[in-house]
Amino acid sequence: MATTAVPVPQAGERSRWATIWEWITTVDHKRIGILYIFTAIAFFVWGGIDALLLRIQLAAPENNFLSPQVYNELFTMHGTTMVFMAVMPLNVGLGNFIVPLMVGANDMAYPRLNALSYWLFLFGGIFLSSSYIIGHPPDAGWFAYAPLSANGGVLPKTNAMDFWVIGINILGVSSILGAVNFIVTILNLRAPGMKFNRMPLFVWAQLVVAFLIVFAFPSITVASILLYFDRNFGTAFFLPERGGDPMLWQHLFWFFGHPEVYILILPAFGIISEVFPVFSRKPIFGYAFIAYSSVAIGFLGFTVWAHHMFAVGMGPIANAAFSATSLMISIPTGVKIFNWLATLWGGSLNFKTPLYYGVAFIFLFVIGGITGVMLAIPPLDYQTTDSYFVVGHFHYVLFGGAIFGLFAGFYYWWPKMFGRMLSERLGIWQFWLMFIGMNLTFMPMHYLGMIGQPRRTWTYEAGMGFEFWNLMETIGALIIALSVAIFLLNVILSRRNGEIPGDDPWDGHTLEWATSSPPPAHNFDKMPVIRSRRPVWDLKYGDAQHFTEPRDVKAAGSTDEDEHSHGIHLPPPSFYPIILAFGLTVAGYGLLYIYSGGVWGIVIGLSIMWVGIAGLASEAARD
Amino acid sequence: MAQAVAHDQKEHAAGGHGHGHPPTSLGLNSRKVGLWTFISSEAIFFTALISTYLVLKPRNIALGGPEPQDFLGITLTAILAFILLMSSLTMVLALHAVETDNVRGTRLWLGATILLGLMFLGGQVYEFNKLWSEGFHTIVITEPDGKVERIGVAEHHLEEELPHLQAEHPNAQIQDTGRKPVTWTTSLFGSTFFTMTGFHGTHVAIGVVWLSIVLVMSLRGAISSRNSLTVEMAGLYWHFVDLVWVAIFTLIYLI
Amino acid sequence: MANQTSSQAEVAAPHHDAHAPSNVRVYIQIFVVLFVITMVEVFASYLDEPPINLETWIEITVLVALAALKGLLVVMFYMHLRFDSRWFTTLFTTGIIIATLMAIVFLLLWGYKASLGGLVL
Amino acid sequence: MPFLYKRSFRSLSLVVIVALFLVSCGTGENPLSIDTPLTTFATDGYESSQIYSLFQPIFWMAIGVFVIVEGLLIWSVIRFRRRPTDGIPVQLHGNLPIELAWTIAPAILVLVIAVLTFRTQAELDRAPQNPLTVTVIGHQWWWEFQYPEGNVITANELHIPANRDVVLNLRSADVIHSFWAPRLSGKTDLIPGHENKLLIRPLGEQQVIVRGHCAEFCGGTHAMMAFHVVVQPQAEFDSWLAQQAAAAATPAGVAQAAASPPATGATVAATVTGEAATGDEVAATTAATVAATANAPETTTPVAEPTSLEAQGYQLFASKGCVGCHAITGYPGAVSRVGPDLTHVGGRQHIVAGWLENTPENMTRWLRDPNEVKPDNVMGTAIKLGTLQDNEIAALTAYLESLK
Questions:
Q1: Nearest CA in chain D to A456
Q2: C or N terminus of chain C, fewer CB within 10 Å?
Q3: Are C2 and C18 spatial neighbours (Cβ–Cβ below 8 Å)?
Q4: A 94-133 residues with CB below 8 A of D?
C-alpha cells in the first residue's frame, strides 16, 4: 500500500539500456504521447512512400513500373496505414501529451492502460507491416469489400487479408482502450474550476472523438471477425453463393467507416480552435457553438454511413434519406468554419508557422467540404463515386484537413513537448511546399474524376485525356515528399539547434502554458485558478477582479480533505503493458496460421497475455 | 449530485488511498466511469451481431436452411434465461453482503453466481451439442414453369413434411438434397446463431473468471466494504451479460 | 437522483447514501417480477399460433416491449442506474441509442430491399 | 509593407488559378482540349444530361460558397496581420444574431440543394416505357451481356437502341463490379447475390460508341475492365441482334472434322452451368480446365489435315482447350460460360475487355502471351508465353477473326 511518490528518473548519466528500459516501462502520458507521435510519423512516412510509388506508376499511361498485384497491395496498405497507423495515432499522441495538461491533470486516468494502448498500436502496426516480409500485403482495399476480401474471386486466395483483419483488430483494441481512457480523463480528472464550458476546444474535440471510437469500432470488430470466419472457418456471412450478403459487410464497415472520418478530422478542428485564438490574441468566437457542433457532428456521423453506398442499389428512398442526413451534417460544419473566420476577424494575427497551417487548413477544408456536399447528392454521386473525384475530395479533407491541422499542432506544441522550437524558416518552407504540392496533387483529381478516371486502377489507357494531369499529380506528390523531408530535417535540427523557448512562447491561453517546457513528470507545480476558458491568459492580462495568484498544486489538488494532501504520486513504471500487447500479437500470428500450427501460437499468446493481465491486475490492486 | 460527491469522497477516504488522483471532477470513481463506457461499447458490439442474425434470417429460410423454431427449444432457453436472471439476483446479493461487511454472505453469493454462470455455460454446451447432432434437409421444389423454391425441413419432421409438400405442389419436381447437420458452417442460421451465442458465452466465461478472481480475493480476506467497488464492477459486467441474454432470448428464441 | 425518494432509498440512505438501496427485499421483488415477465414472454411467443392466431407483428411488439421492460429493470435496479449518478445513465443510454438506431436502420434497409426484390439466390 | 503585398499577391494568384480550373470543370470545357471518352460532361444519354444539368447549378453554388468563404479568409489574413502598433484587440466572444444568421443561411442553401436533388432523383427513377431489357453480368475482368429477346450472348460490347428506354439487369458472377458508362449515366454496382437495375435512355440519331469502365475495385486487373456501348438507331440495332442470334459459321474445309470434334475440354466444359457459376466454382473450373488442357495428349489432333488457316484454327479451338472456357454457338461442345462468348468475336470492335482494338495483330499479341497484355488475368493461368506455337496462334487468330 505504498503511496510514496515515484518520480520518473532523469535520464542522462544512466546507460543507454537503462534509458530504453525507462521508455519501455513508462506510464507517463507525456512519454507515451511522444512514443505515439514518433511511431506514427514513421508509419506516415511509410504510407507516404507507398503513395509515391503509386503516383510514379500513374505518372504515365500504360506504365509498367508496378504490377497490378503490387499496386493493389500498395494502395490497400497506403489507406490502411494512413488511417489506422498514421493519422489516428498522431491524434492520439498529441491528445495524450496535451489533454491531461490542458485539463490540469497529473496523468491520464489509467496510465498503465495508456501504455498498453501504445504497445498494441505499435505491435498492431508491426503485425500489418510484417505482411510485406513474411506474406502477402493485404490487397483488397482498406475498405475490404466482400466477397473480394473473403474469397479473392477467381484467382487463388492468399492470407493477405487475414493480415488485414487481425491487424485491424489489434489496432482496434488499442483504439477502444485509448478512447475509454480519454473519456474518463476528460470527464473525471479536470482541475478544480474547469467546468465543461471552460474546457479547451481541443479537449472537446478529443472527447467527441473518443466517444466516436467507442461507438464505431465495435461495428468493424464484428465485421472483420465475421470476415475472418468466412475466410478460414467455412462460414458464409458475406459469401453470396451460400446465401451470405456482401451488402452486410458494406453496412457494417461504413457504420464504422463514416464516424472514422470524423475520428480523423475532429482533432484537427480542435487544434485549429486552439491555434486561432492564440495567434490572433482573441478568444475563440462562438465557443459554445463550436463545442456543441462537434457533438452534433459526432452524433449525426452515425446516421449518414450509407452515403458511401449510393451506387449499390439501395433504392431511391434509402438514398434520399441518407442524402438528407448527409446534407444536414454540412450545417454544423459550416458554422464551425464561420466561427473560425470570425476568430481571425478583428484579431492581431501573429503569422508564425502554426497559423500558416491553420489558415491553409480552412482554405483546403472548405474545398473538401464543398465537394463533400456534392458527393452527398445521389445523382452526382452516381457519376463521381469511385472515381478520382472522391480521391481528391477526401484528400482535401484528410490531407488538407487532418494533416495540415496536425502540422499546426506540431509547430504549436513542439516547444512544450521538447523544450525546443522548430525552425520558423524551415517551417515556412515546408508549409509552402506542402501547400503547393498538395493542391497540385489533389486538385486535378476532381477534374480527372469528372472526365471519368476510375479510382484504384493500376494503370489507364492512353488517349483518355488523363495523361497531363496525372503527370502533374505525380510532380505534386514529389513536392509533398520534399516538404515532409524538410519537416523531418527540422525535427532533427531542432533537437540540437532549436531555439529554447520560455514556458509560454506563443502567449498561450490554456493550462499547458502554465507549466515548464517540457513539463515535469507530475505536470504542474503551480496551478492557475480556473475561472474562464483562458486561465493562462487571465493570469497575464486578466483584470484585477479576476486576477488570482496560482495556487500550490498540493493545495489545488485536494479541495477539502487534508488527509489527502500528501503530494502527488504517480504510478510506478510497468512492463506488463508491453507483455500483454506482445501476447495478443503472438495470438494474432497464431490466428494467421491457424491451419499450420497456429493454435499453439494462440495458446502461447494467451499465456503471455495472462501474465500481463495478472501483473497489471496486481499492480492495480496495489496502488 | 451533492450526495454523490459526498459518497465518492467517503469511498475515497475509506478505501482508495489512492487511485493516485485527487477527488475527481465528476465526483465519480474513474474505474466505474470507464467500465460504463466500455459496457456501452459492448452494447454496440452485440447489436451488430444480433443485427447480422436478423438480416440474414430471411435469406437462410429462402435458401432452404434450417428454420430456427424447429431446433431451438423454448423450454431449455427459458431455463437458461432463468439461470442467468437468478445469477443476477445472487450477484446483487453478493454486493449487498460486501457493503454490509457480511463476509460469509459475500463468499456464498459470489460462489452461487459463479455456479449459476457455469450452469448456464453447461446448458449452452448441451444446446450446441444437441444442435450439432441434429440434421436438416433442403428440399428443392421445381415447378413446371421453372420456378424454384427451397424449403428447409428438420430431419425429425421429414417424414410428415414430405407428403404435405407433395400435396401442396402437385406438379412440381421435389428433390431432397440430403441430410446436413446443423453446424456452424452448413447454413446461415448456424453461422449467425453459433457466432452470436458463442460470443455471448465467451462473455459469460470471462465473467465467471472475473468473479472467481473476486471470490479468491474474498477468501483471502482482501474484500470488504472499503473496496466494495471490486465486487460492484464485476457485478456491472455480469448484469450486462445478463442483459444481452434478455435481448437474445427474445429476438432469437421467442420471435 | 437524490430527490427520487423511493422508500428503499430512504431506508438505505443512512448507510449508503447515493448508492443503490441495499435492500434484499427489493432485489428479490425485482427478481420475481423478472421471472414473471419471462414466463409471460414464453406464453406470448405462442400468440401468433393457434388457438390465439394474433398477427405476428403484435406478438413481436409485445415481446420486444416485455424484453425492454426486463432490461430496464435490470439496469435500473441491479445495475443501480436509478440511484447512481446521472452520468452513468448518460453514458449507457448514448450507446443504447446508437445501437438501437443501427438495428432499426439495418432492419429497415433489408426489409425495404426485400420489398424491392432484387434478391438472387 | 511591400513584403506584405507580395505575399498576398501570391496567395491571390493561386486562388485565381484554382478558380479558373474549377470553372473549366463547371462548364465542361476541357482546358487542354483533349479527347475525353469517359467524360461525365457529355450528354449522350438522358440520364447523364439530367445529372449534368443538376451538376451545373450545384457547381455554381459551390463556387459561390468557395469565393465568399475563401475571400473572407484571405481578406482577414491580409487585413488583420499583426502590426507593431497593435495592442490587444477587442476581446469578442461571440454574437448570437450573427451566429444564428450563419447557421440559417447554409441551412437554406442545403434545402435548395435537397429540392433540386430529389427532383433529379425522381427523374432517374422514372418508370421505364416499353423498355429493352439486357442482363449485364460482371466477371473478373470482363463483361457479359445477355439479350433475352434474341437469345443472344455477347461480351464487352453492349449494343442498345437509341431513344428507347433500356433496363439493364446488373448481376455479378464473382465479386462486386460497377457498370459505368459516364456519357450515358451514372454508375450502379453489380453485386453478387443481388440484381440491380439501371435505366438508361441513350440519345441521338446516329450510331455512337460510348466507352465504359468498371468502377468498383474488383481485384487483380480491375484497371483493364473496360467496355463499349454501341448506341444505334432501332433498325440497325434490330439487324445487329438478328445477326448475333445466328450460329457461328464453320470455316470451309472442316465439314468432316466437325462431325467428330476433338473436344478435349468439352467434358469439363459441360459441367459448367453458365451464369449460375459462382466465384469459387469458376476458380475451380478454371483450374480443372487448365489441368485438362495441360494433360491433353497431343494425339487428339484430328487425322485429316484441314486446308485453310481458319479451318486449322477451328480444330485448334477444341484441341488446345479453348472450349474449356469459351462458348461459340454452333461449335459442338463449346458451351462453357467461364470466359467471354466468342460466337461473333470477329465482328466486335475491341478485344480484351475493351482494352485493345480488334485487329489480327492485337489478337496475335493477346494469344501469344495474355499476361503481357493484361497481367494477372484468368486466361493467363491457361496460356503462357510459349503455350501456343506461332503457327497455331496464326490459325486461331484467323479463325476468330472470321467469326463476324
A1: D217
A2: C
A3: yes
A4: none
Query: Is A56:A475 a contact under the CB 8 Å cutoff?
Result: no
Q: How many CB atoms lie within 10 A of CB A70?
A: 16
Give the structural domain span for B153.
135-181
Q: What residue segments make up the domains of chain C, in order of their start?
A: 1-84, 86-121
- D118 contacts on A by Cβ (under 8 Å): 320
Which of B151, B166, B181 delimits the end of a domain? B181
Q: What does each of the 404 residues of chain D score in pLDDT, given as a tens digit?
A: 444 455 555 566 666 666 666 666 656 555 545 678 898 988 889 999 999 999 999 999 999 999 999 999 999 999 999 988 888 888 888 889 999 999 999 999 999 999 999 999 999 999 999 999 999 999 999 999 999 877 899 999 999 999 999 999 999 999 999 999 999 999 999 999 899 999 999 998 899 999 999 999 998 899 999 999 999 999 999 999 999 999 888 888 775 544 444 444 433 333 333 333 444 444 444 444 444 444 444 444 444 566 788 899 999 999 998 999 999 998 988 899 899 999 999 999 999 999 999 999 999 999 999 999 998 888 888 888 888 999 999 999 999 999 98
Contact state of D187 with A383 under an 8 Å Cβ cutoff: yes
The CA distance from B252 to the nearest CA of chain A, in Å, is 17
Domain hosting D14: range is 2-83+94-124
- Judgement on whether residues A144 and A273 belong to the same structural domain of the protein: yes
Note whether residue B62 is domain-resident: yes
Assigned domain for A24 exists? no
Q: How far is A348 from chain B (nearest CA, A)?
A: 35
Q: Which domain holds residue A141?
A: 32-549
DSSP string covering D277-293: --HHHHHHHHHHHHHHH
A79-118: b (≥16 Cβ within 10 Å) or e:
bbbbbbbbbbbbbbbbbbbbbbbbbbbbbbbbbbbbbbbb
Report DSSP state, residue B24: P
Residue C15 CB coordination number (10 Å): 12
Q: For residue D294, with 0-12 CB atoms within 10 Å meaning exposed, 13-18 middle and 19 or more buried, which class applies?
A: exposed
Query: Distance (Å, rounded) from C-alpha B222 to C-alpha B218?
Result: 5
Q: What is the ipTM of this complex?
A: 0.89
Do B100 and B153 have their domain in common?
no
Chain B residues closer than 8 Å to C62 by CB: none
Task: Name the residue in chain D with its Cα closest to that of C118.
Answer: D195
- In this complex, do A315 and C112 lie within 8 Å of one another by their Cβ atoms? yes
Residue D337 falls inside a structural domain = yes
Interface contact A303, partner C, CB < 8 A: yes
Which one of A307, A352, A416, A522 is the catalytic residue? A307
Tell me whether residues A229 and B42 touch, CB distance under 8 A: no
